[in-house]
Write a structure and sequence with these properties.
This protein is an alpha+beta fold. It is built from seven helices and twelve strands.
Length: about 350
């Protein structure tokens, strides 16, 4: 569990057996020499008769011109198949150009589209064109030398269609990675280029205009930055300890109104002073790459809130003023006394 601590301050501010082998004596008497001699002579005579019979049969077969032997030899010969004519290279080039042309136009539209709805729409259109091109090339007749490259290109175009579509859906809402960043980390554009090079080397033009991409960003704010700040005029003080592996933004709300949001880098602490008296809900989000305009991280995001409210109170006492000092720990600690709940990204306060 995570922790929060509260204090009142007064003032102005985890094997086998082995044996000897035995031999039995062979008591059988050898056969008489005379018998063995007769047996050998009989065998030799039978072999000689068989050889004579074979010698007699060979001339008969050789002299037969209309017999079964000649007919059998003629029937055993099988004519070799005629070679299949290869696919016309010019026809394949024409099909290739026709399939890739619409996709090229759609990819150029992606390249020029602005971030947001326009880019997402262009990515979805290009995804459909990539699938259509793959369908066309999969069904077309292909020259022998282009067949491996064509199959490779079909697979790469299908993967590109999936990546274009998923990149477009990644561009909206909280924890939104830029579509150009998502597409930049995909493998399909490189696969399309490799298949294109193999076909181009054989004389088949596969020029494709792949859209520009962006590398993943790592934007961060300075520790303790107030991402959002409402009116603060009290004496309350909030300290946040971030022992998680990612940066965090902690947001306090009263009802549906955001009081303030504090940026706390991972492994750091940050404090907000002059917190007004009242009961606050404490939300926090962690992640990587802070997108200021969307008030959200773009990767590895989580959205949570503490189940207990943070209550700040300021009262006057003898000798001065008593006010609330709270400390929240975002990482789970042994013996912690604060429970948290996951919050849908859409419900996280901006």
């Amino acid at each position: 569990m995570r922790t929060y601590t509260s204090a009142r301050a007064t003032g102005g501010a985890p094997s086998g057996r082995h044996g000897r082998p035995t031999h039995d004596q062979d008591r059988s008497a050898p056969a008489p020499l005379s018998r063995r001699g007769r047996r050998l002579r009989t065998t030799h005579r039978a072999a000689s008769l068989a050889a004579a019979a074979l010698a007699l049969s060979l001339p008969l077969s050789a002299c037969s011109s209309d017999g079964a032997g000649g007919a059998s030899a003629a029937d055993s010969s099988t004519p070799s198949p005629s070679p299949t004519p290869t696919v016309d290279r010019a026809a394949y080039r024409h099909t290739l150009t026709g399939a890739l042309g619409p996709l090229n136009n759609a990819l150029r539209a992606v390249d020029s589209a602005h971030e947001g709805r326009a880019l997402n729409t262009a990515l979805n259109t290009a995804s459909s064109r990539a699938d259509a091109a793959a369908d066309t090339l999969q069904m077309t007749a292909t020259p022998d030398d282009a067949s491996p490259g064509n199959s490779q290109l079909v697979s790469a175009l299908r993967a590109l269609g999936q990546d274009l579509k998923s990149s477009g859906s990644a561009g909206g809402g909280r924890c939104a990675t830029s579509p150009r960043v998502a597409l930049g980390s995909a493998q399909s554009p490189q696969s399309v280029q490799a298949a294109g090079r193999a076909l181009t080397a054989l004389g088949y033009d596969t020029t494709l205009h792949l859209p520009r991409t962006q590398p993943a960003q790592h934007r961060r704010l300075t520790n303790g930055t107030l991402v959002r700040d409402g009116s603060r005029g009290g004496l309350g003080r909030l300290t946040v300890k971030n022992g998680t592996a990612r940066d965090a933004v902690v947001t306090l709300t009263r009802g549906k109104r955001t009081a303030f949001s504090l940026y706390v880098r991972h492994g750091s602490n940050a404090t907000v002073r002059s917190v007004n008296s009242g009961s606050y809900t404490v939300y926090f989000t962690t992640g990587e790459d802070w997108n200021g305009p969307k008030s959200s991280f773009t990767r590895e995001c989580s959205f949570e809130k503490f189940d207990d409210h943070a209550n700040f109170k300021t009262v006057r006492v003898t000798g001065g003023t008593q006010y609330t000092v709270l400390t929240f720990t975002l990482n789970k600690v042994f013996g912690g006394n604060a429970r948290t709940s996951t919050v849908p990204a859409a419900d996280f306060p901006s």
